[in-house]
Design goal:
Layout: E1 13-15, E2 21-23, E3 31-32, E4 37-46, E5 50-56, E6 67-70, H1 77-89, E7 94-104, E8 109-118, E9 129-136, H2 147-157
Parallel strand pairs: 4-8
Antiparallel strand pairs: 1-2, 2-3, 4-5, 4-6, 5-9, 7-8
Length: 168
């Protein structure tokens, strides 16, 4: 959210000594901390030995990544990641492990990544995802930002050293 004036007192905004947008009025304590948004990410192990990557309909044609989604109010991250997998690719997944949390600085997001196992049939019912790729572990390439770190960690845990390529 961008502010032109202080939402508390309508005063002038500027930069605080700590580097945050803050109200410059002495009597006001407003600081806009720009806290990161929590997002869940699923490294989907699909039918033993494969990774399922998804293409968002808003992305360039050959860009595929992990299934991700925002946490809803009061939602547990484990419930959220399973919900997103079901909504976006139609699979009932099983959490096999927590992969870690990673910053995605470009979008100011905190990614909470899980290893999900699924072996059902993919059903694309969400217009957000228009295509998936099923890739054997040994052929998966990762990227050096955001969810790419979680995917790399997962593949390394399976004994693979993936090639890291630019995202997009």
């Amino acid at each position: 959210m961008e502010y032109n004036h202080c939402p508390t007192c309508k005063g002038t905004l500027g930069m605080s000594a700590e580097g945050y947008t803050a109200c410059l009025e002495i009597s006001c304590n407003f600081v806009y901390y720009e806290n990161p948004t929590p997002v869940v990410a699923a490294v989907i192990e699909y039918k033993d030995g494969n990774v399922l990557l998804a293409h968002n309909s808003q992305w360039p044609p050959k860009v595929f990544a992990l299934v991700t989604g925002f946490l809803e109010k009061h939602e547990d991250p484990e419930e959220a990641v399973l919900r997103e997998v079901k909504e976006e690719v139609g699979l009932d997944g099983e959490i096999r492990g927590f992969l870690g949390h990673y910053m995605f600085k470009k979008r100011n997001q905190l990614l909470i990544a899980y290893h999900i196992y699924a072996d059902g049939e993919v059903e694309l019912n969400d217009p957000e995802i228009d295509e998936v790729k099923i890739i054997p572990f040994e052929q998966v390439k990762t990227w050096p930002t955001g969810t790419g770190h979680a995917l790399k960690k997962f593949l390394e845990s399976k004994g693979f050293t993936p090639e890291v390529v630019p995202f997009g």
